[in-house]
Amino acid sequence: MRHPRTDVDDHAGAAGGHRRGEQDPGARDRIVNWESFARFMVAALRRESSRRPQDRFLHDLIDELRRTDPMVAGWWDDHGVRDYASVAKHLRHPVAGDLHFDIEVVVAPHEPGQRLIVYTCQPDSATARMLPILASWEVTATR
Q1: Which of 34, 120, 133, 135 is deepest in the core (most CB within 10 A)?
Q2: What topology is assigned to 8-142 in CATH?
Q3: How many whole angstroms separate alpha carbon 92 and alpha carbon 12?
Q4: SS3 sequence, 45-82?
Q5: Taking Cα atoms as reference points, which of 118, 116, 4, 107 lies closest to residue 58?
Q6: What is the pTM of this model?
Q7: Rounded Cα–Cα distance for residues 134 and 139 (Å)
Q8: Chain segment 68-101, per-residue pLDDT in tens
Q9: What are the sequence ranges of the domains in the chain?
Q10: How far apart are CA 52 and CA 11, in angstroms?
């Protein structure tokens, strides 16, 4: 069940990513640049925690991540803070191969709790050529 106010798995990223990494050991293999991506997300999570010091749900979740993942604990102790602007993500799909995305996180100026996460890829890249194929698989699978 998601917390009605914070929904940390969606907007903080690190929490959801690390939870999936613990629940699905293959997730760390599928995200080729997992460590740099996870470091970025932990630093973003630190920023979010400083914005909301009274959010018990968020801080409990951070404590859980630090307790259950030594890498998160180490990165947290580095005291890095990161804005949500942009990050690269390199995925290894079991059939499609390597997919490279740039992720931009857009924050509405008057609604700082709302974020739009946009995955893009370079035009004419292998990733751009593979996306319509992957999308067609989903359409076929749901018919």
Answers
A1: 34
A2: Beta-Lactamase (3.30.450)
A3: 23
A4: HHHHHHHCCCCHHHHHHHHHHHHHCHHHHHHHHCCCCC
A5: 4
A6: 0.67
A7: 9
A8: 989 889 989 887 776 667 888 999 998 899 999 9
A9: 8-142
A10: 13
